[in-house]
Amino acid sequence: MFSSKLSKAIAGGAAAIVIAGGSYGIVSATSSSGSTASSSSSAPSSSSSAAPSSGSAGGSGGEASNARSGPAAGGAAGTVDSVSTSSFTLTTSAGQKATIDEAPSTTYEKGTSPASASAVTKGEPVLVLGTTNSTTITATQVIVQPASSGSSTTSAAKVIPFQRGAPTTSKQVGQIPASYSQGSGTIVSGTAANKATEAALDAYPGAIVDRVVKLSNGDYEVHYIGVNWPHHVFVNQDFKVIGAE
Fold first, then answer.
1. If you compute the radius of gyration of the chain from its CA atoms, what whole number of angstroms results?
2. Is 241 exposed, middle or buried (0-12, 13-18, 19+ CB in 10 A)?
3. Cis bond leading into 125, ω under 30°?
4. Residue 188 in domain
């Protein structure tokens, strides 16, 4: 909102000084938990929702500038709560709820075998990959009873669920790429984003991934919302988790 004020101050009963105030703009980025982040940061707290520029990201390995103005490749893992004709809901291990929109192009697997939409039933564990817009994911792939590398067993207990009013947790685990700084990198989509999302959620389940950023050294920053920690999970070029903060 723009405003200007005209103030008059009379000094010594003789002179009037008019001060014109400048105008300013406020840009806010808000997610399911309602926090505010700076527009220049690629890695706000987990309670903020972020998305890439609406430009050229798309297809396998597509890239876009690291900005926030639309949905981006991401995903979530959790347990199915309810199922309807063209969508279902899930709850993550950290208590975050997500709505999954299905499309005719959505593919399904059960374990490692091809499946159909009928494989998605209440109570089933699922991994969803697709396009994230806040807490709604348009699914490109749904994996029922996804295989796990086993890393989630130890890391799940370290994920800090979001609690309204609780301070944001700040800590670092493992290796943070030397090339990483907030706002750096480009948002990616397609196969690379899916692999990085899957690796991150296997190691640190409970959040919703709302974008994946490729860093200058080739590693990836996977951005989390819906938890107080971690906010960013770092995945190397071999799609192995190397660190979190």
1. 21
2. buried
3. no
4. yes
75 belongs to a structural domain: yes
Domain range for 225: 63-244
SS3 105: coil
Q: Quick check: helix, strand or coil at residue 173? A: strand
* Residues 6+ positions from 50 with CB-CB distance below 8 Å: 29, 31, 37, 42, 44, 68, 72, 210, 211, 223, 225
Q: How far apart are CA 211 and CA 221, in angstroms?
A: 9
**pTM of the predicted protein model:** 0.71
Q: Is the pLDDT of residue 239 over 50?
A: yes
Residue 192 host element (H or E): helix 190-203
CA dihedral 24, 41, 197, 234 (to 10 degrees): -170
Number of domains in the chain: 1
130-149 pLDDT per residue, tens = 999 999 999 999 999 998 75
CATH number, domain containing residue 123: 2.40.50.320
In three-state secondary structure terms, 197 is helix
Count of Cβ atoms closer than 10 Å to residue 37 Cβ: 21
